[in-house]
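Self-study notes.
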Amino acid sequence: MRLNLRESLLYLVTRLLARGDRRARTMADYQPENVQRILLVSSTALGDTVLSTAAMVAVREHFPAAHITALIHRDYVPLFEPTDFLDGIIAYYGGYSHFFSTFLALRRIHPDIALILHGNEPQATPLAYLAGARFIFKLPNTSRFAFLLSNQAPRLSWLDMGHGMMQRLKVAQLVGARIEGARMHLPIPNPTREIVTRWLAEHDVMAADIVIGLQAGASSRGRMWPVAHFVALAKMLLAVHPAYRFVITGAPHERLRCEEIARGIGAGAIVAAGALSIEMLPALVHRCAVLVTGDTGTLHVAVAVGTPTVSLFAVSGPDVSGPAYDLERHIVIHHPAPAGVRSKTDNDRWMAQIPSDEVAAAVTQQLSQFAQQATACPERSSGGSS
C-alpha cells in the first residue's frame, strides 16, 4: 500500500510538472548537435548493465565531446569505474531508497537528454525527468510514465525488442547512434588482472593450468543448475583430465552454495564467491578456458571478455538473454520448461532436467577448441589480453 501511495504521488507530481512544462520535448524537436550532457540509466542487475555497455559505447561514439553520466546500481559501480566511455557514475540504491539524494545528484548534472537503457520503474523515468532532461528516450514505451518520454509513438512492447542487448541498442538508435556491429565492453585493468593471478596462485592455480568456471548462483533458483549436477559434471571431466581446476563463482550471499559444490568436487575446486570483489570478475572469467552458467550476469561478462561458455536455459529463453554475439564461441543447452512457468520461479526442477553428461560433452567440445586456440595463441591460456 505504501509503495502504491508513493507511485501515485510520483505520478501526480510528474503529471503536474509535465503539464506546465513549456519546453518542446518531442522527437521532432530533438537536435543532436545541441547535446552536451547525457544521462544513461542502467540501474538493474549485473547482466542487464553489462548488456547496456554496447549501447553506452554507441552513444559515446555518436557524442564524442559530450559529458556522459550513468546511473548504475550501487553494487556494480566499481565494475564500470575504469571505463573510458563514461565520464561519471551515480549510484542507484534500488526502489525509493535514497530517492531524494539520487534526484539531487542527477539534478546537478542537468542532462540535455536521458536514455533509459534498462531501469526499474516507476522510478527510472520520473528520475530522468526530475533531473531536468528535456528529451527522454526509452523502449519499451508502454508504462504509465510514457507521457514523459520523447518517443511516445509508435508504442512498442517487450515482444518487439528481441534480444536484451538489441533492446538497449534500439534506445541508442533513437538519438542517432550507429548500432551496427555493436559489442559489449568491460575493461580488464592490469592491476585487477594481477590480483586475480596472485589469488589463483595462492590456491595453487598456475598459468599453465586449465581453469573451468562454474557459475553457481543466479537471480532465482529456477535459473540455477542443481549443486549435485555441478559436482557430477566436474567428476566426469576430472575422470578424463585429473589436472583440471574449477573456480566456482557467485555473489557473496551464494558462498555457502558455492562451498557445497567445491566440497563435492574435492581438491581441484576453489570458491571465488565472497573472496574477490565485483571488479575482479572480468579478469577472473577471462582466465577461464570455459564458463558453465545458467541465465546470469556472469554469462554476459564472459561474452563481453571473450570467454567461451556453455549456458543452460530452462525457464528463460536464450533468444532474449543468451549470448548476444560470437555465437560460434558459445554453446547453449536449452530444455524449455512447460508454457506458463515463470522465469523467476524458485523451483529448480526444470534446470534439473538438463543432464550432467550433456553438459560435459559440451564443455569437452569447448575445451578442445580452447586447446587449439592456446596452441596458436599461448597468451589466451595464461589470461592474456582480451
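Second protein, same conventions, sequence then structure:
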Amino acid sequence: MNDVPADPDRATQLRNKVVDQLRDEGWIASPEVEKVMRDVPRHLFTPADTPLEQVYDPYSAVITKTDEYGVQLSSVSAPQIQALMLEQATLRPGMNVLEVGSGGLNALYLFKLVGPGGSVTTVDIDPEVTGRTERLLGEMGYGQIRVVTADAAEPIPGLGQVDVILVTAGAWDIPPAWLDQLKPGGRLVVPLRMRGLTRSVAFTRVGHHLESESAKICGFVPMQGSTEHHEKLLLVNGTEEIALRFDDGLPSEPGKLDNAVTTPRHELWTGVTVGLRELLDTLQMQLAISLPGFCTMAVDEDLDTGLVAPVNKRHALAAVEDDTFAYLVTRRTQDNKHVEYGVHALGPNAEQFARKIADVLRDWEATRRGGPGPDIRVYPAGTPDDQISGDRVIDKVHSRISLSWPAAQASASRVHQAPPVTQGGST
C-alpha cells in the first residue's frame, strides 16, 4: 500500500480540498465527520502506484483487488460515498459498531468517531483483505480495532448486539444475522440493491423489522459469500446482441419474447423533459415500483444490428410485459439544456405497452418529481402479506422488502441537481 508521499504537504492540501468540496456540496454536514476526514491520511490505504490526484478525487473509488477477469472485488470507496454513509450512520461517542466489508480506512473513521469508549469490529470474507487491513491499522497504532475474517452474513462470534452496522459492499439481501446483531433502535446503513437499483439506505430497527430514514443513489462492489447474488439474463433475439437483465428472476414465460424483435419498433415521445444534471432517483424508483416486468437492457456493441437504439448501450432502463419489451431513450431539446424521455417498444403489443410506460413517466412528473423517495421497510422472509403494506413487495431469500410512496403530492418546485454517480466498496 502507499508509503508516505515525498511531499506530505501535497496530500494534506488535496485532502483538505476534497473535504471542503464535500462540505460545500452538503455531503459532509457534521463537524465530527469533517474532522476525521481531514485528519486521516486516505492515501496510506491505497495502492502505492495510485496518483494522489486520483486518491483524493471526491467521486472516484480506488480499486485494490480484481479477479483474473478484471472484476472488481475490493476498493477504497470514493470520499463522497464515505461521507454520505458516515453521515447516515449518525455515530456518537461510546457506540459499538460492526463494519461489513473491510479495508482499514473506513474502520479508522468509525473508530475515531466512536472514541475510546466505543468499539469497532471490521469483517471481510477475503483473508487477503483482512490481512492487509490488520497490518495497516497495526502499523498506524490502531491495533485495538478488531479485524475478523468471516462471512458477515453469519453471526460474528463474541460480537453481541451493536448500535450501528455499516455495510461497505453492495447487498442484495438482508441476512437475519444483521437484524439479530442490531440493538433495538439501532441503525443499519447498507447499499441495498432493489430491482437492480442500488441505494445507500439508513435503516432503524423497529421491533423485528427495519424502517428507512434516508436513501441515496449510489453504486458499490457487490457482496461476496452466502448472500452473493447474480442477475438473470434473457437474450431476446437468440444471440448476445440484446440482453435483458432481471434482478429478481426471469419472467414466468420468457419464451413469449422470442419473436418480439421481428416486429416493427414503435417509438413514442412523452413530453417529459428533465435537466441535464437533474437527480432522477425517484424516476428510476417510479418505474421499478410501477412496472412488474422492470429490468435493464444492454447491447453488445460488437453484435449491434440496430434492432434497438438505446442512448446508453450498456445500461438502459427497460421493462417486459408478456410478449413485448420496451426501453427508455432520450433526446436533447431545442434549448440544449434538457432532454426529453421517449419509449421504444418491440413486440405484438408495442404501441399499447409504450403508452403504459409513458403514463408512468407522466405520473412521476406530476406527483413524484423533486419529492421524497419511497419508504423502504425490510421484514423477515415468511412474514405474512397482511403484515406488510407497500406499493411493491420484493421477495428475497432472507427478507421481504416493501417500497411505499409517501402520499402523492404535486410536482415539487425545486429540482435537485445530480452529482456524478460514484462507486463504493470495502474501505
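Instructor comment on the second fold: The first strand starts at residue 62 and ends at 66.
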